[in-house]
Amino acid sequence: MIASASARIFLRRLLLEFGVYRGTSMKWWLARIPNKESRFVGFDTFTGLPEHWRATEPLGAFNANGKIPDITDPRCSFEIGLFQETLGNFVKRNDLSGRLVINLDADLYSSTLFVLTTLAPYLKPRDIISSTSFPVHWTNTELSRNTPAPFALNMKCWVRCTVTLGFP
Q1: Of 25, 71, 136, 154, which has the fewest beta carbons less than 10 angstroms from its beta carbon?
Q2: Positive or negative, the Cα torsion across 71, 128, 34, 95?
Q3: Within 10 A of 135 (CB to CB), how many other CB atoms are there?
Q4: CATH of domain 2-164
Q5: What DSSP string runs through 129-155?
């Protein structure tokens, strides 16, 4: 599903990745979207999860010791800090009117919900939202009660999900 999505996004202009860690998926996206006008922005603290997620990922899990991934592609940059501290200013400084690709690997429900609600006003038909863990640990009740439309999707434990938005 991701490979077919990447084939459709050669003309996409802005990929936002939330949860970069060591940059593995950012490198994957960079290799598959050759358009020189595309931009890639990774959001992460690079110091691990700000709170306990689950038994196997406690506070500080995914700690890269503050080290930003070694990515030399000039189309790529990073916003360092919590999403709640960096995304609002990024939105104010950047034009989000082009097609967006949003890659969510935040792990925490609260962080993912913050990203989705912050970016909701800028989402357009044919924008793509991809997630590596959406909504593995969330119940359908959490999604339908706490997630604003158009994100209230009836999904059961998918490990990877890609949604191409198409509003009526």
Answers
A1: 154
A2: negative
A3: 20
A4: 3.40.50.150
A5: EEESSSSTTS-HHHHHHHS-TTS----
Q: Structure pTM?
A: 0.74
Tell me how many degrees the CA angle 117-14-146 measures, rounded to the nearest 5: 15
Rounded to 5 degrees, φ, ψ at 115 are -60, -50
E-state strands within the chain: 14-18, 39-44, 76-80, 100-104, 128-131, 161-164
Tell me what pLDDT residue 85 has: 95
More confident call, 54 vs 94:
94
Who's near 98: CB < 8 A, 6+ residues apart?
12, 13, 14
Tell me the mean pLDDT in the region 131-148: 47
Query: What integer pLDDT is reported at residue 153 of this predicted model?
Result: 42
Q: What is the CA radius of gyration of the chain?
A: 15
Are 53 and 107 spatial neighbours (Cβ–Cβ below 8 Å)? yes
Element (H, E) at 5: helix 2-7
Going from N- to C-terminal start, the domains of the chain cover: 2-164
